[in-house]
Structure formats: C-alpha cells, structure tokens
C-alpha cells in the first residue's frame, strides 16, 4: 500500500479523502496550516500529522516544508485539496520529481481553471450558458458598463493569487445600486488589480463530476444542492445525488476536457425551472462535497490514487444510488446561524425561514441520509468539529 500525504486537513474534502484512502489500506499522513484546527488529523486513519508553514503567507517556505516531509517519510503521493496549496505545488512541481507524485492537473489546466474570466470565455465559446460578465481593470472601465439590473455580483477574477510570495484572497459580494458598485469596484481594484462584474443568477445549484484521463471522461455523477452554508450562495451544507442529465453531462464533459483537467473534476451550475443551466464554477481538485459520490457508490479518491500511482483507469461508468442525501453538520449549524440573523437588506430572492429550516435540520436520520463529518466508524473528527464550532462562536 502507498504512503499518502493529504493536505488542507481543515476542510471537508481532506477528511473524505483521508477516510477513503485509509479504508483502502493506505498509510495516511495529514497536513494543515500551523495553528489551524484540522478535523482530518483526528481521523482513525491518520497515522501522522504535519503542521506546515501557511502557504498564503510564504509559498516557498510551504513548498520546502512539504518537500522535506515527503523525503523524510518516503511519501508516494501528495494530495492537495485547496487552491492555496495546489497552486504553489503546481508552480514548483518539478522539485518533487524523483521524490513523490502529486495529484495535480497539468500546469496549463491549473492556470486556466484559476482564472474565472478565462473559464467563462471558454465556456461561452463551447455554447454553454454563462452569466453576463464584464472584466474591469480600471475605474474608467465603469463608464463602459451597460445599464445593469441589480443586484450584481462583484467577484475577484481569481480565488487566490500570489504577489511576492504572499496570497491575495479573492472575494465575492453583491452591489444593489450604481453607487455601491462603484465603491466596491474601487476597493477590489486597489487590492487585486482587476475585478469581475457578473449578472445575478438564481436557481437550484446542480453539480456534475467526472474522472478525466487520456482526453476521456469516466464515472459521471450528478447532485443537487439542498441547503447552502450561506443561503445567498456558498458551499453546500446538504445535497442529494441524482441521475446525470444527458445534455448537461455532455456540455460539462466538453468543458473539463477543454480546460485540460486530468484526474477528478467537477462543474457547477444554477438552473431555474425550465431555463438553461448557467455555469457557476469548475474545479480540478477534490471538492468539499466529494463525500456524496463516495456515499452513493463512486469512490473518486480510490480511483485517483490508483491512477496517480499505477496509471490504472477507472470503469467508464458505474451505477450509483440516487436520492442519497449527504449533510455536513457544522455547515448546517452555520446555515441556521446565518438565517437566524434574518434576510439581508435588499436581498431579491426568497430567504429560508428559520423555524421551518430548523425542523428539517433537526431530523437526525432518515433512509438515504449520510453525513460528511459524523461517521460511527470514525467519530472523533465530527465530534471535535462540532465542539470547535461552538468554541469559536463563544470566543467571538
């Protein structure tokens, strides 16, 4: 069995990956930023924990520390599960040659996928529905924007970018009028140098994922979001598996191949009623809701490990269970906390009602329900996450 280092142990993808690889019999180490609570380190499958320098403070120091750990512990495969570790490792991947493998898409795909504007333009050229999007590089560009329907989304072009070895984190916010938009554009231009203005898109969140190799896609899987941590739009706290829509699966397949992803990848959309599915984002790394396909019968981490280490391809397709609901309990708690604060001012969409949502969230189990964090066979990560959630809020 392989010796594997999973990075970003604080996030849901790392915990899912650790459990999957551990159940397959691999030796697992879990790394995380120094000083950060990391539930995946507490898994019964984690043999060794590793605190590394914060990559967003000093990318070079982070890479050097990971490289030293890989040498010292004879690591076979490193799995980054967040952009702020994936991108520095991608930039310096040559330093790991002859030492270990890294579960990374090709460098060109990492660059392409990190640029939200480039992804939107690529999807538009493939005939995929996308939000109307404008790239603003200077205050003077504000005058060239058309009359807009508000709210609009003010979004950084990159989730994270590096300047002189330090990260500039992206942000997403909403503007409800021209004056507010001008102020937010000016703020982001000062911090990041450019910013995207995007039309607001409503609808249900739908995701499609694949395993991609040799310009082919394998193991398609689909899901729909049930609840989001922030009801205005964020990571999901609850989602349900569903059958892959043939047309949506095809256009998503074209996009992930055009970007150049290798390994596992996902694409997310919003779809309102009978309208088209509108592209929201794409990812070529383990994503936060990857526990759902695992629970439904498609264990992406196992196939990714085998492919990275031996070149073995997965089956073209696998039947999986639909109507499997997967929840992340700390995400559900944050969802409740957000709606308890009430509907944000000027928000144009329906907003969840606290008591009816509480009634749904309070149901601990029904047939087909699974948890990302709470596993009876691996209880400690989920229990400690809940304790940490309350501890952080008490400290505030």
Strand % is 25-35%
Indicate the CATH architecture of the largest domain. Answer: 2-Layer Sandwich
Helix/strand-derived category reads: alpha/beta
Low-confidence stretches: none
> SSE string, helix = H, strand = E?
EHEEHEHEHHEEEEEHEEEEHEEHHEHHEH
Q: Counting H and I runs of at least 4 residues, what is the number of helices?
A: 12
Largest sheet: 7 strands, mixed
CATH topology description of the largest domain: D-amino Acid Aminotransferase, Chain A, domain 1
> What is the residue-averaged pLDDT?
95
- The percent of residues in helical segments reads 25-40%
Q: What is the radius of gyration computed over CA atoms, rounded to a whole number of angstroms?
A: 21 Å
CATH classification class of the largest domain: Alpha Beta
Number of strands: 18
CATH superfamily of the largest domain: ATP-grasp fold, B domain
Shape: globular
Overview of this protein structure:
This protein is an alpha/beta fold and 396 residues long. It has three domains: 3-103, Rossmann fold; 105-114 and 203-396, ATP-grasp fold, B domain (D-amino Acid Aminotransferase, Chain A, domain 1, 2-Layer Sandwich), CATH 3.30.470.20; 132-199, Dna Ligase, domain 1. The protein is built from twelve helices and 18 strands. It has helices at 12-23, 59-72, 83-91, 107-114, 116-125, 178-192, 246-259, 291-296, 300-310, 329-340, 354-361, 379-395; strands at 3-6, 27-33, 46-52, 77-79, 101-102, 133-136, 152-155, 160-163, 166-169, 172-175, 195-199, 204-213, 216-228, 236-242, 263-271, 278-283, 325-327, 369-371. The strands form four sheets. A seven-stranded mixed sheet has the order 16-15-12-13-14-17-18. A five-stranded parallel sheet has the order 3-2-1-4-5, sandwiched between helices. Strand 8 (160-163) and strand 9 (166-169) form a beta hairpin. The longest helix is centred in the C-terminal third of the chain and has 17 residues, at 379-395. It starts with a strand and ends with a helix. The model has no long low-confidence stretch (mean pLDDT 95).
């Amino acid at each position: 069995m392989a010796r594997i280092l999973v990075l970003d142990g604080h996030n849901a993808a790392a915990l899912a990956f650790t459990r999957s690889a551990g159940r397959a019999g691999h030796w697992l180490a879990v790394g995380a930023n120094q000083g950060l609570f990391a539930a995946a380190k507490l898994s019964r499958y984690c043999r060794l924990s590793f605190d590394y320098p914060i990559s967003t403070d000093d990318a070079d120091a982070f890479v050097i520390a990971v490289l030293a750990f890989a040498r010292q512990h004879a690591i076979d495969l490193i799995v980054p599960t967040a952009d702020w570790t994936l991108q520095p490792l991608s930039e310096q991947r040559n330093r790991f040659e002859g030492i270990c493998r890294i579960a990374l898409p090709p460098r060109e795909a990492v660059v392409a996928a990190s640029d939200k504007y480039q992804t939107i333009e690529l999807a538009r050229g493939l005939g995929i529905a996308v939000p109307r999007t404008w790239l603003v590089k200077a205050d003077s560009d504000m005058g060239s924007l058309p009359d807009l329907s508000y709210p609009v989304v003010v979004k950084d072009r990159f989730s994270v970018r590096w300047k002189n070895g330090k990260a500039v984190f992206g942000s997403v916010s909403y503007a409800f009028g021209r004056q507010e938009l001008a102020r937010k554009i000016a703020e982001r231009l000062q911090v990041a140098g450019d910013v995207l203005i995007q039309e607001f898109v409503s609808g249900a969140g739908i995701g499609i994922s694949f395993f991609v190799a040799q310009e082919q896609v394998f193991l398609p899987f689909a899901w729909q979001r049930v609840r989001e941590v922030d009801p205005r739009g964020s990571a999901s706290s609850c989602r349900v598996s569903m059958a892959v829509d043939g047309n949506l699966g095809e256009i998503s397949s074209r996009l992930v191949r055009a970007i150049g992803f290798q390994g596992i990848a996902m694409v997310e959309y919003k779809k309102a009623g009978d309208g088209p599915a509108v592209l929201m984002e794409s990812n070529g790394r383990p994503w936060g809701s990857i526990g759902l396909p695992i629970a439904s019968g498609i264990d992406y981490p196992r196939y990714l490990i085998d492919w990275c280490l031996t070149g073995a391809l997965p089956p073209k397709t696998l039947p999986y269970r639909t109507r499997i609901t997967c929840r992340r309990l700390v995400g559900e708690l944050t969802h409740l906390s957000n709606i308890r604060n009430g509907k944000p001012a000027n928000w144009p969409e329906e907003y969840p009602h606290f008591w009816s949502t509480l009634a749904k969230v309070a149901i601990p189990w029904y047939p087909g329900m699974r948890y990302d964090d709470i596993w009876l066979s691996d209880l400690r990560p989920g229990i400690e996450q809940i304790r940490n959630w309350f501890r952080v809020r008490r400290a505030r």
